[in-house]
Structure formats: structure tokens, C-alpha cells
Design a protein that fits this description.
There is one protein chain. The chain is α+β, with helices and mostly antiparallel strands and 174 residues long. It folds into two domains: 125 residues, Ribosomal protein L10, N-terminal RNA-binding domain (Alpha-Beta Plaits, 2-Layer Sandwich), CATH 3.30.70.1730; 47 residues. The protein has seven helices and five strands, in the order αβαβααβαββαα.
Length: 174
């Protein structure tokens, strides 16, 4: 890369890092190209971006951004996975891929501007997705109303059964 290409790459990386609220630095060493492309497809399906970077360019591009703490001391082959949407979906994709490929490892991460550890990354990958959480909340909000409806329905059913029995026994004829 010549100096102009490096400057363009740093500017593009700086813009990407300012937009990405969620960022994971990973080691992709010894990963075959075919598996790398599969990972790229999975990350894109989860709403994220994946790019291989030069560590020195990443440090320069991260200066002054929230990602500076994450990208300040990288060594070895590094790739960045980032997203502006759900960090949980991206973490799930990365952790699933890491289970299948032991050479693929998590190095550092940032979620909503806060640096996270490897343990926090593992916890993040175990969380249910946003859609699952919303469905659980809606279920819990709906439960009391459903309980009241079932109780009222059983009372009405009891009254209807009592009236039906009374009609069959001619209790209303005088």
C-alpha cells in the first residue's frame, strides 16, 4: 500500500469505527479462505460487517474514538466484526464459529462504547435475542389479562351449565 491508499484506508476505518457501537476484534489465523467467506456471510446475515485490518492502521484510525482502547495493542492477524444493531446476534455468530474453528479466537470487544472482557463476550453470546426478549415481555404482560379472561369464562360457563341443568329439570315452569 502506498501512502495515499493508507490515508484513504485510515479515513474509511475511522468513519466505520465512529458508526459502529459494537465492535469485536478477532484472530483469524490458520482459517481457510472458504471458511472465512462463510463467516463473512453469517456476519452479514446478522447485520454486521467483517474486515481484515492492519494493526498499525487500526491504531491510527481508532485514535480519538471509543474503539481506541480496543484497538490500541493488537498483535498478529486481526479482523474486525462490527454492527450498529444487535451485539448479541453478532456475538452468537462469532462464538458459534469459534466453537467449530478453534483457531478463531476473540481478542477484544466493545459493546455500546464500553470495552468488554472475554468472559463478558461469552455471557453476551448466551443472551437471548432482542426479539426473544420482547416476546417474553409481551407474554408476561399478557398473562394477567389471560388469567382474568379464563376466570371470567369459567364463571360464565358455570352459570350456563347451572341454567341448562335448571331448564332440563323444569325448574322454571310454574
Amino acid at each position: 500500500m502506498n501512502r495515499d491508499e493508507k490515508a484513504k484506508e485510515v479515513a474509511r476505518l475511522k468513519a466505520d469505527l465512529e458508526n459502529a457501537g459494537n465492535l469485536f476484534a478477532v484472530n483469524f489465523q490458520k482459517i481457510p479462505v472458504s471458511q472465512d467467506w462463510e463467516l463473512r456471510r453469517q456476519i452479514q446475515a446478522a447485520g454486521g460487517r467483517y474486515q481484515v485490518i492492519k494493526n498499525t492502521l487500526a491504531e491510527i484510525g481508532a485514535k480519538g474514538s471509543p474503539a481506541e482502547a480496543v484497538l490500541s495493542s493488537l498483535a498478529g492477524p486481526t479482523a474486525l466484526a462490527s454492527t450498529e444493531t444487535s451485539p448479541v446476534a453478532l456475538a452468537k455468530v462469532l462464538s458459534t464459529y469459534a466453537k467449530e474453528n478453534p483457531d478463531f479466537t476473540f481478542r477484544a470487544g466493545m459493546v455500546e462504547g464500553r470495552v468488554i472482557s472475554l468472559a463478558e463476550f461469552a455471557e453476551l453470546a448466551l443472551l437471548p435475542s432482542k426479539e426473544e426478549l420482547l416476546s417474553k415481555v409481551l407474554y408476561l404482560l399478557n398473562s394477567p389479562a389471560r388469567g382474568i379472561a379464563v376466570a371470567m369464562q369459567s364463571v360464565i360457563r358455570g352459570i350456563a351449565t347451572a341454567l341448562d341443568q335448571a331448564v332440563k329439570e323444569n325448574k322454571f315452569n310454574q
